[in-house]
Here is the input.
Amino acid sequence: MSNVRVLVGTHKGAFILAADGKRQNWEISGPFFAGWEIYHMKGSPADPNRIFASQTSGWFGQIIQRSSDGGKTWEMPGGEKLPEPGPPAGQSNKFVYDTSAETGKPLTTHQWYDGTQHPWEFMRVWHIEPSLTDPDTAYAGVEDAALFRTTDGGRSWHELAGLRGHGTGPKWQPGAGGLGLHTIILDSSNPGRIFIAISAAGAFRTDDGGETWKPINRGLRSPYIPDQTAEVGHCVHHVAMHQKRPGVLFMQKHWDVMRSDNAGDSWTEVSGNLPTDFGFVIDVHAHEPETIFVVPIKSDSEHFPLEGALRVYRSKTGGNEWQALTKGLPQKDCYVNVLRDAMAVDSLDSCGIYFGTTGGQVYASPDAGETWAPIARDLPAVLSVEVQTLA
Amino acid sequence: MIRVELPQHLRTLAGVSGDVMLEVPPPVTTGSILDALEARYPMLCGTVRDHVTRERRAFLRFFVCAEDWSLEPDDKPVPEAVASGGEPFVVLGAIAGG
Here is the structure.
């Protein structure tokens, strides 16, 4: 029987929840890296025992952790003490914008909250996306927004500077949480294609492995920016894609749920009958590429469910027609949020859906959202949830 | 030997349980202590001072002999009590919480 491993990043450490394919009895291990913010953890599709974690702190900066045994033990690749003579030590937590003449771009400025220009400053890694084929390769989306890549298992990271330097950078502005690159989607059918999204700049696509990028925001409308249909400046909260439907993208924007059927060249709104089209997470069913999930959140300032009722909404038609899923979820006095990287699906025959809340609960549904149960109740605020389906 | 007192989180990263002892050739300065610390414990690179600018991270302070040395030049020799190992070089995190 297959097993499931849920990787949970929280405000105060990382946790791993494990169960067999029935997904009824869960074992929780952790906290790992107690006291640190774990923005994201994700396992390699090429080697499930290889897991990367972004460990960060306002005091001590950015650390990359790596496990090679499914999360039992961890190491800081590049931070280890090496014998001498030997290879030079790596610097796993070194994320430096590439300003070299050969491969980099000048470090310019981006827009600050008050509209003035502000220097680019590295803050943290928001999201790590392991390669689909190579366990030593992974991409990191960082704040201030840029994309980095490692090809040596995290010992060193190098910026794909074409994104930050492609020209619209001075128009990018931070969302309330910072100018973060939070979404990275690799395309198994096209190794050169990568989609990324930034708050608040929008979505971008490369078709040449990260050398050059183009904004893909046509069709987005954002009433909180002067030019509501601008090329950049949109606060994209998350984007999801089914690997068997490359080019079909679903987006949860600051307001609006959007869909693109042409790899982001244009978008149409599919908010339909959602009670509010504000929210953070969006994900796609593992086996039904037109079945998508969101968690509507009230307004852009209150950031909790409507009427104190936590509801996942599911569309089986790729948007527009939505159904509330509530069985097993709190339907009164619930005022948690579900952050952008805190929903994931497993790939068992009966697709499992998982999400974490800022109240420290992790909810799971083993039947594509029909029923829910908490598999952890009292963790620190959940920042991210990823799932590994293990043979 | 120079004695360096680290915040708990950095001790955990470095895999040490108490103060760190370092060989630092004279003249012993804030900069040379941190150079030796990062050389002995590469996992701490970037956690005390920035990778590129080498500036102290904003929420950390340095203390020697109960005096705040956070803003002292990197190349200023520390007091003999620290250089001799009698007193620790203290890396202190800003207090968080209410």
